[in-house]
Specification:
heterotrimer, A mainly alpha (306), B alpha/beta (330), C mainly alpha (294), A: 306 residues, mainly alpha, 0% strand, flat, C: 294 residues, MetI-like fold
Chain lengths: 306, 330, 294
């Protein structure tokens, strides 16, 4: 297992480096970095100052070194709008996004896994067809539209739930549903196909040949094996959720990092945008690594290998 | 003779029906045979001849597309076809056990070997966890696995193929069944391990008075292990009888061809092996009359028109071939 | 045999085999309708989508009280006709959607073939690049790029293309790796064909199936992403009518109960994406059952 973990950590490291290079190059090569890094409405003198500060007239690898050293030091720039270090802003908003993502993930698993299992066990029957329709709708409807419809229905027409902000469970319900809807469908699909694979396996056949009750065959032998790919996907999806939430957070004015990104765009606050993207990307890499490690712990085939 | 046979199949048929009901595959077609307690039957045939389907039919563990369309399965006097699902569940693993071909695939990778061996004991005999665990260790010992105390806590992937197949054997005998069906148990094992495993099965059989059904395409195993042999072709039982008689004087042309195609040591090196002409039949659209007729060296006009009936050549020796049907008395 | 009759027979047979295969008539019709609307938007739309009359703001659809026949599906906060904007929005979605899918497809398939066939350091470089790209979630990446280069319809297409090519590259590379072992490729190598010829004449036609299936599946994703970008304000810039932009505008009137500004554009997105997904699913099964893992 150690070797497996070390290898994964190495890959994560490379991914992080590539991430930083990609962001760095994209800004330098495609836009005019001076314009981006300077506040809107700045004067020529300001632009000169910025050019000096970021060393924009220096050779590119010097700039990159500067870039990376700032990253490592935790200096991800200052927000024009809020006049505070972006890292601070990001970290203060992160818990809200995590809470939203956790709620949405819980929703998606609670709905997705059982429906997937039932669809597989009752394959090609009524449940399965209903499940397929649900999956199709979930994967085709944009999350922000679902959010808007929910507001229209539950806030404007029924007045049951608040349409924006956060703070109570009532605030959490609609955003979590809107965000989790797509993933519920994705998880259902994967659970179903994984379960079907497992149900057709030789060891399930042998479990039946042993005369085990069907509940034990499905609940013990099939379930755990079928769940492995689903949980792996769920782990990655958690981070993807945090990222995709940018639109849902905007719709519901949920104070998370998604909304921070939106504000960065709306107010032309480029340091916020750049930093958020870097941090989100880093989060994806780190969480993927953690999921891989978790995988190693669960699956005895990896845990007990050298 | 003496006691009733342990297992008796009477005109057993299993058909696969396609989803729209259009294609019918006669996987098992009117098979009749008997098996005494403690004796060994070998079922041989090409791939697709219906051997595995027959085994699953006996255990009534067929896929949804397959249906038992006729006949009786008499096990210890009871017709298994009349049993409910719950009753069949109690028979499987406890009175009739089965070993599958690929031991790596047969064992659940996420549970320990001990857990999987103990399972039938806990389910069928209600043994508690601790008791089942220690009996699992004993079972591992009886299938000749060294250091059973440590092995019992290991996972399937930590063992070799031969060991895994022994584990599968341990699972099978855990509740002392009367009948063990082994579906090509040695096919995925190394040659050197195969002999060991067969010896193990033989010893287990003697110890526990097990009747054994051996599904295989390897006539050598049949010669070594079996008292009787059943030859299947296109779902039909073309010859069934004592191994010694059939190997000496096979009645059906297919059996003759099978035996003739085995290379023999010491035989004249210039002698050609008898290869069987043609291809195995498509079970969805089998040849008319006798399914073997396109490949039979002794084919007659009648073979193409009518499927031959079961002819009894001697007690417990039957065949389906027009050649063996006695000419009608004038 | 009559020449023209011989020519139609195979087509007729092919069409009827399509029909019996559960050919998704409705999704294809919807997509065809959208394409038709996109092409003939100028003729079909009753009003100019970008010009509004301030006296006619927030008119509900014709069947509701306060609606008028002038604005069949109502008007928005600037008095612009919703129906016309939806029609021209179809043009935006179709053009951006198909072009982006094409760009991503060409780029991804090309790189996938190079990576899979040439192997070695080319493969390593492209794969590492793909991995790094995939580390960034598509939407975030697209937002970032839009913020850097500035939004415009052309830029959006390029951005979407450059974000989604990685999906193709991975899959196509896998296909190429297994194709490489097939006999007809090996024969071509033995016959002395250049690498370029092999890739162009033997590998490419065989991966086209996967590329097409992936393309239809990606169409839905791209349309949703474009809508999200427009909704956030970094997609197609106003006053051009994009469905996502209409949703953003619609939010302003939502609290007052002006439902048509939210429901109608979203329905259009939904129908387009649903149709693309259904078509993609059907194609996946029909063209190559081995692609099920897509």
């Amino acid at each position: 297992m150690k070797r497996y973990i070390l290898k994964r950590v190495g890959f994560a490291g490379i991914s992080l480096v590539l991430l930083s290079v990609t962001i760095f190059l994209l800004v330098r090569l495609t836009g005019d970095p001076t314009v981006l890094l300077v506040e809107p409405g700045a004067s020529q003198a300001d632009m000169e100052a910025i050019r000096q500060q970021f060393g924009l007239d220096r050779p590119i690898w010097v700039q990159y070194g500067h870039f990376v050293s700032s990253l490592v030091r935790g200096d991800l720039g200052h927000s024009f709008y809020y006049r505070t270090p972006v890292l601070e802003l990001y970290l203060s908003r992160l818990p809200s996004s995590l809470m939203l993502a956790a709620a949405a993930m819980a929703f998606s698993l609670v709905i997705g896994i059982p429906t997937g299992i039932i669809a597989a066990v009752r394959v090609n029957q009524w449940w399965d067809s209903a499940g397929k329709v649900f999956a199709l709708l979930g994967l085709s409807l944009p999350s922000f539209w679902v959010g808007l419809l929910l507001i229209l229905f539950f806030s404007v027409y029924l007045g049951w739930l608040p349409s924006s902000g956060s703070g109570t469970a009532a605030h959490l319900v609609m955003p979590a549903f809107a965000l989790g809807w797509y993933f519920a469908a994705a998880h259902m699909r994967l659970t179903r196909s994984s379960m079907l694979d497992v149900l057709g396996s030789e060891y399930v056949k042998l479990a039946r040949l042993k005369g085990l009750p069907e509940a034990l065959v499905i609940g013990k032998h099939a379930f755990k094996n079928a769940l492995i790919p689903v949980l792996t996907l769920a782990g990655i999806n958690l981070v993807i959720m945090v990222n995709v939430a940018v639109v849902v957070e905007t719709v519901f004015a949920w104070p998370g990092i998604g909304r921070l990104l939106y504000e960065g765009i709306a107010f032309r606050d480029f340091p916020v945008v750049q930093a958020t993207v870097i941090l989100n990307g880093a989060m994806v890499v780190v969480v993927s690594l953690l999921v891989d490690i978790l995988y190693a712990v669960i699956d005895p085939r990896i845990r007990l290998a050298r | 003779m003496s006691a009733a046979p342990l297992l008796e199949l009477r005109n057993l048929s299993t058909h696969y029906v396609s989803a729209r009901g259009t294609r019918v595959v006669r996987a098992v077609d009117e098979v009749s045979l008997t098996l005494e307690a403690g004796s060994t039957l070998g079922i041989v045939g090409e791939s697709g001849s219906g051997k595995s389907t027959l085994a699953l039919t006996i255990l009534r563990l067929l896929p949804p597309a397959a249906h038992i369309t006729g006949g009786e399965i008499l096990f210890e006097g009871d017709d298994l076809r009349t049993k409910s699902d719950v009753e069949m569940r109690r028979i499987r693993g406890k009175r009739i056990a089965m070993i599958l071909q690929d031991p790596m695939a047969s064992l659940n990778p996420l549970f320990t070997v001990g857990d999987q061996v103990a399972e039938p004991l806990r389910v069928h005999e209600g043994v508690g966890r601790a008791g089942a665990w220690s009996r699992a260790k004993d079972l591992l010992k009886s299938v000749r696995i060294s250091a059973p105390e440590s092995r019992v806590g290991e996972y399937p992937h930590q063992m070799s193929g031969g060991m895994r197949q022994r584990i599968v054997g341990a699972i099978a005998i855990s509740c002392a069944p009367r009948l063990l069906i082994a579906d090509e148990p040695t096919t995925s094992l190394d040659l050197t391990i195969q002999a060991q495993y067969l010896n193990l099965l033989r010893d287990l059989q003697r110890q526990h008075e097990l009747a054994l059904i051996f599904i295989t395409h390897n006539l050598g195993i049949v010669a070594k292990m079996c008292d009787q042999v059943a030859v299947m072709y296109a779902g039909r039982l073309v010859e069934w009888g004592p191994v010694t008689r059939i190997f000496d004087a096979p009645a059906h042309p297919y059996t003759q061809a099978l035996l003739g195609s085995i290379p023999r040591m010491g035989a004249d090196a210039r002698e050609r092996l008898t290869a069987i002409e043609g291809q195995p039949p498509d079970l969805a659209a089998p040849p008319s009359g006798c399914a073997f007729h396109p490949r039979c060296p002794h084919v007659m006009a009648q073979c193409r028109e009518q499927a031959p009936p079961e002819t009894v050549l001697a007690p417990r020796h039957t065949t389906r071939c027009w050649l063996s049907v006695p000419a009608p008395a004038r | 045999m009559n020449g023209s009759r011989a020519a139609t027979l195979p087509i007729a047979r092919r069409l009827s085999s399509f029909r019996s295969d559960g050919f998704p008539m409705i999704p294809v019709s919807i997509l065809a309708l959208l394409i038709f609307v996109a092409v003939f938007a100028n003729v079909l739309a009753p009003h100019d989508p970008e010009v509004g009359s301030l006296g006619e703001r927030f008119r509900p659809p014709v069947w509701q009280q306060g609606g008028s026949e002038k604005f069949l599906l109502g008007s928005d906060h600037l008095g612009r006709d919703v129906l016309s904007r939806l029609i021209f929005g179809a043009r935006v979605s179709i053009v951006v959607g198909f072009t982006a899918v094409l760009v991503a497809g060409v780029l991804g398939t090309g790189l996938g073939i190079l990576s899979g066939y040439l192997g070695g350091w080319v493969d390593q470089v492209i794969m590492r690049l793909t991995d790094a790209w995939l580390a960034l979630p598509a939407l975030t990446f697209a937002i970032f790029l839009a913020a850097v280069v500035g939004p415009s319809e052309m830029n959006i297409v390029i951005i979407l293309g450059s974000v989604y090519w990685t999906r193709y590259a991975r899959v196509i590379r896998g296909e190429v790796l297994s194709l490489k072992e097939r006999d007809f490729v090996r024969l071509a190598i033995v016959a002395g064909c250049s690498k370029r010829t092999i890739m162009k004449r033997h590998i490419l036609p065989n991966v086209l199936n996967s590329a097409i299936v992936l393309g239809t599946l990606m169409l839905g994703v791209v349309v949703v992403t474009e809508a999200a970008l427009s909704f956030l304000g970094v997609g197609v810039p106003p006053p051009k009518p994009a469905w996502g932009l209409m949703l953003a505008d619609g939010k302003k009137g939502m609290m007052a109960g002006y439902w048509w500004l939210t429901v109608l554009p979203g329905c259009c997105i939904m129908f387009m994406v649903l149709s693309a997904n259904l078509l993609g699913d059907w194609l996946r099964v029909k063209l190559d059952p081995q692609l099920r893992q897509l």
